[in-house]
Amino acid sequence: MKKRFKSKFGPFGGKFVPETLMAPLEELDEAYRKYRRDPDFRDELKILLTDYVGRPTPLYFAGRLSEYAGGARIYLKREDLCHTGAHKINNCLGQAILAMRMGKKRIIAETGAGQHGVAAATACALFGLDCEVYMGAEDMERQRPNVFRMDLLGAKVIPVTTGSRTLKDACNEALRDWVTNVGTTYYLLGSTVGPHPYPTMVRDFQSVIGREARRQFKKSPGGLPDYLVACVGGGSNALGLFHPFVKDPVRFIGVEAGGRGIKTGKHAASLGKGRPGVLHGSYSYLLQDRDGQIREAHSISAGLDYPGVGPEHSFFKETGRAEYVSVTDREAIRATVKLSRLEGIIPALESAHAIAYGIKLARNLKKNKTIIICLSGRGDKDLEIIQKA
Amino acid sequence: MDNKIDIKFKQLKERGKKAFIAYLTVGFPDIETNLRLVLEMERRGVDIIELGIPFSDPIADGPTIQASSQASLARGTTPADALLLAAEIRKHSSIPLILMGYLNPFLRPAPGILAKKLSRAGVDGVIIPDLPPEASDSIRLPLKAEGIHTIFLIAPTSRPDRIKLVCEKSGGFIYYVSRTGVTGAREDLSRELEMKVKGIKKETDLPVCVGFGISTREQLLRVWGTADGAIVGSALIKPFLGETTPARGLKKCLKVLEGMLQVGSA
Asked: Which residues of A155-169 are buried (b: 16+ CB within 10 A; e: fewer)?
């Protein structure tokens, strides 16, 4: 069991935070070690995932989309059908139960697209916890529906006006809040990023995606899919899907946000174009300049608009376990329209990146090949952006 | 024993005095003003200078140092400028110099080259708030070989085993964070301050200095009453914010300093 709690993935990960946060991270690590195998904890989470979130989510064969691509068969793991509309709730419920066990009454979170913020606000409403969500001012502007939802759920949304006014800066503010209110506050981090134990813990809570998909796919002839495709910002839906297949002969493809094109410099392809460094407490691939200053990321999708990436993805890249590609803003919009027209499913712009690459991939594969794409969230929040595009 | 930080603390001890350590953000408002400020500060009794390398994402800093860092980066300040400034100060003064910066820019050069560059610029110590002592060897040891101290922080939340670890790995002095939170002025210091500093002193012979939130003469005296030195940053940067010219900011900053140290204009 100790072995599974390495704070690093190869050279990546670790705990690079101010000293004030070292003790609460240890406390969190201890609590998570204790409860992750605790039957009561597991039962409580399982019941909520079933009755409240609506799991298991379907694994849907997208017949018309597959036909359009004209190659491999495409399956969609329907995380968009989770309560709150995205996979983020899987992690939020797990961490909220943990916070309750640890006796913390005040929850803080960062959010980009607002999906994690909404999920955190939802979990806090369910458990009667105080919730404050840091959100970049630019993201509040482009994801307004989610700001209203958080407000309705009783959370306080705090605009962040420093830096690029997006997810990176929201993380900075959440860390500053945590370092100040460390005794009373639980930091509910939304992705597989940050200092240990977050990347491991968030991955574990999201692994329900891959466990279900594996079980669901096993029933079909062939037993295992050939490819798994998921979008990667911080990378939690991708790791959630990939991880239960890590020992299987299944290829993993992570799709980063190519923004206006990775040659323009206006993108969020940390793995594709960055190099390793330290941001928000872990060592991982980063968009940075010659001097080690963090570069601003660019993506039409607020949830992928982040200059870092989870350390386990960096490890997968270095070891070749997964490959990472990118898709531009324009391709993501086109995929959004395609999926809407062909399947009657409006994907989140984040997930549309995975769809866009999935279509390209399927087109170049034989008809007997299979792909599972993680449809990590639904697109209601993005309607304004898509109308403008 | 030829590290300038060690020599300074030894001298202060012999004279029964405590250290005043001043932080400034490199390139804010500009490098020329930084240089003038350091020399003026030394004349007014500042013992050690901490040169802050501006970083895009300073998670341990409050609004004042954030604003100064953003302004400095907007002017195009780089880590290399910090070394140029240090070398320039060295031409005029032998005041101990500490480079403070977040970890990522320190990872750019190979550790051995970094240490040589810092040594050539006349740097005596480094503070890297997001580098924990247990993960520091690859940076700390090459610096040590060049006679440069890596100064680690202890926080109010640090458990006894971590206090021991920091005392074991730290050089020059121990930086005690006065209370949980980011840098910047606060109305009150923690009631536990004296007890915590005494606890650390039991673990080490190194001087213990206290920083974060010290902005008044009263707070300074209280820190000096228990610790070996006080680190003041935001209170000396604030006077520059919103000033129309660097010269006016400099004047206001020195006034604040004179008030804290109770010295007249030199």
From this structure: bebbbbebbbbbbbb
The whole-angstrom distance between B107's CA and the closest CA on chain A is 7
* Tokens linked to A369: 């090949």
Domain boundaries, chain B: 4-152+214-260
pLDDT in tens, A114-144: 999 999 999 999 999 999 999 999 999 989 9
ipTM of predicted assembly, 2 dp: 0.95
Q: What is the DSSP string of chain B?
A: ---HHHHHHHHHHHTT--EEEEEEETTSS-HHHHHHHHHHHHHTT--EEEEEPP-S--TT--HHHHHHHHHHHHTT--HHHHHHHHHHHHHH----EEEE--HHHHTSS-HHHHHHHHHHHT--EEE-TT--GGG-HHHHHHHHHTT-EEE-EE-TT--HHHHHHHHHH--S-EEEESSSS-SS--S---TTHHHHHHHHHHH-SS-EEEESS--SHHHHHHHHHHSSEEEE-HHHHGGGTT-SSHHHHHHHHHHHHHHHHT----
Q: Quick check: A141 and A172 in contact, CB under 8 A? A: no
Name the residue type at position B59.
I
pTM of the model: 0.96
Residue appearing with tokens 């006006």: A161
Contact A179 B59 (CB under 8 A): yes
Q: Which of A291, A294, A306 best tests the B interface by mutation, with the highest count of B CBs <10 A?
A: A291
Decide: residue B130, CB within 10 A, 0-12 exposed, 13-18 middle, 19+ buried: buried
pLDDT at A142: 87
Helix axes B246-261, B217-226, angle to 10 degrees: 50
The token pair that represents B176 in the structure block: 């005690």
Q: How far is A43 from chain B (nearest CA, A)?
A: 33
Contact present, A170 and A111 (Cβ < 8 Å): yes
Q: Is A384 designated active site?
A: no
Q: How confident is the model at residue B100, as a pLDDT? A: 98
In whole angstroms, what is the distance from residue A159 CA to residue A165 CA?
Answer: 8
Is there a contact between A381 and A350 (Cβ–Cβ < 8 Å)?
no
CATH topology of domain B4-152+214-260: TIM Barrel (3.20.20)
| Residue carrying the six token digits 């010295």 | B263
Closest residue in A to B157 (Cα) is: A20
What confidence tens digit (pLDDT) does each residue in B84-106 have?
999 999 999 999 999 999 999 99
CB-closest option in B58, B59, B157 to A182? B157
Does B187 participate in catalysis according to the annotation? no
**Cβ–Cβ < 8 Å for A357, A327:** yes
Question: Which of B73, B79, B130 is facing A16, going by the closest CB pair?
Answer: B130
Show the tokens assigned to B261: 């140290």
Quote the minimal CA–CA distance from A175 to chain B in Å.
7
